Amino acid sequence: MKTRYTxxxxxxxxxxxxxxMSLDAFFKSLSMSNAVREAxxxxxxxICPANASFQVRFDPDVIxxxxxxxxxxxxxxxxxxxxxxxxxxxIEIPVYYQDPWTHETLMRFRERHQDPSGTDLDYxxxxxxxxxxxxxxxxxxxxxxxxxxxxFVAGLPFLYQLVERDKQLQVPKYLRPRTDTPxxxxxxxxxxxxxxxxxxxxGYQMFGVTPMPIFDPEQKQSxxxxxxxxxxxxxxxxxxPIDREEYDRIxxxxxxxxxxxxxAEVDFDLEAFNADMPGTNAxxxxxxxxx
Amino acid sequence: xxxxxxQPGLSTSIQDLGRPxxxxxxxxxxxxxxxxxxxVANMLVGNPEGAAGLEVVFMGPEIVFxxxxxxxxxxxDLPAKVDGKPQEGWTAFEVKAGQTLKFDFLKxxxxxxxxxxxxxxxxxxxxxxSTYPIGALxxxxxxxxQAGDVIPLGEAEMIEPGLNVPKELRRLPDNPAELRxxxxxxWHRLTPAAQEGFFDDDWTVALEADRMGYRxxxxxxxxFVGREQPFGAGADPSNIVDGCYSYGSIQVPGxxxxxxxxxxxxxxxxxxxxxxxxxxxxxxxxxxxxxxxxKFRKVGMDEALKARSDRxxxxxxxxAHLG
Lengths: 291, 323
What we know:
The complex is a heterodimer. Chain A is of the alpha+beta class. Chain A has two domains: 4-81, 2-Layer Sandwich (Gyrase A, domain 2); 87-289, Cyclophilin-like (Cyclophilin, Beta Barrel). Helix content of chain A is 31%, strand content 25%. In chain A, a hairpin with a 3-residue loop joins strand 3 (44-49) and strand 4. The radius of gyration of chain A is 20 Å and the shape is globular. Chain A starts with a strand and ends with a helix. Chain B is an alpha+beta fold. Chain B has two domains: 2-169, no CATH class; 177-312, Cyclophilin-like (Cyclophilin, Beta Barrel), CATH 2.40.100. Helix content of chain B is 14%, strand content 30%. Chain B contains four helices and 20 strands. At the A-B interface, strand 1, strand 2, strand 3 and strand 4 of A face strand 15, strand 18, strand 19 and helix 4 of B. Chain B: Pfam families: CT_A_B (PF02626).
């Protein structure tokens, strides 16, 4: 990993921890962006952590770009020394895979896809060496995921699966982005899963939909009362496959503002995880059983 | 007291100077595309510079006033009429209760700003009245202005009409427009020939040009430095591991058509960016119509900061002029 510093115009400094994705790069980016936040540098207006990079927006009338860059660079050692441990939460997100609404949408945009003859899931299963969509879905939800970035549009989480690199699922984005994606679609692009927080354009493959709102400016759900955006970087997610019946039941609760997602407080230790991935994941998922 | 919208125009939205602080959650700063024009419009009618006004794209709305107010229209040259009587741009004029504000066809520029004394007083969302339709935030119910809307106004500090900003203190892009770019971000992904070609080529504004971003076409496809794509980036050479996007950053999906992200930018994604438009030229982009010829010009940080300071001086000159 070699850190790269660059300017984004005269108001941003962009720091890339690594050009490839890994949890190590994510942790380094998170702790360094935290160090920048804690340093309370005058002139900083926004700090945006991403998967393996982060960005600082500043007011060049308050602090010159060169001085700003130097201050950020000086904090790199703190990121290296930081403990790779997080007090976080694991959340169970219900997913209705192969639902009728993303199916209708993916058929509508078929000419923009690599494989117009099948569905996004059939394609993803085939190129990842699975013999059926069912087996691919199993691989998608069996092990938990880590929220490594929130952004694109309002509150959309990017998720990275907690498995060895050779078990990571990878799919390309659509050849040309769609102009429409149903709200709360569970999507996939590169090595990242995502949940489309709102309806709109998108280029990720579509696998299913969750009935659970994750962004609501009206903050009607109990778990969105503190803030309108549900996810934050460092959250851990376990997808739970559901059928139409359960989807409708949860949707009923959502409409009555009574839906309560399953959430448990957990610790995540990167070194423990690297030493024993199945064991660490099993423990994380057990926490949900008592939630 | 309020305004009644008879016709909304093409895409009219309530905007102020935006909501900083939530980009890390994918909620962009938003606010007026041409911030200079909004500030000046507000000054002309005696409002604080950051008061909320209307951002009008290409085609003006038709609005009935329910109380007397001072109004100023700045930015694009979109001639205003009160009950049919033409009004000067960049000048404060009176509209009496019951009168109608309408507009002629657009003459130049792309976005006009309407400031009304007292400012628009819709409920702020995350500290701003700016409309962000994707996130249903700000404006009226998080959307653009519609026919039938009743827009509330704040308390006005009454000043005399007639204040005017002279031509030399207005700012609109030249034709062809020049946009200054500070190379950076993933600039190293381009071959030297592509780096040069981007600045040599003649571009025009494409039809896909809105508050999120402006697309340009007409230049040669950009070639990338060959590499094995990093894990998680995606197969296309223009892909990166999804990262943050800067305001004004220039992404070129597939190396084909550059897109400059603007006030309602997506906060991140998986396309390489070759640098960013300098902050001093962001306002100009909001005034570009589709098909306008554009040249990108490469600058260094010193020139970017000098341009930024020139813009501040111009704003200070307007303040001094208006007393």
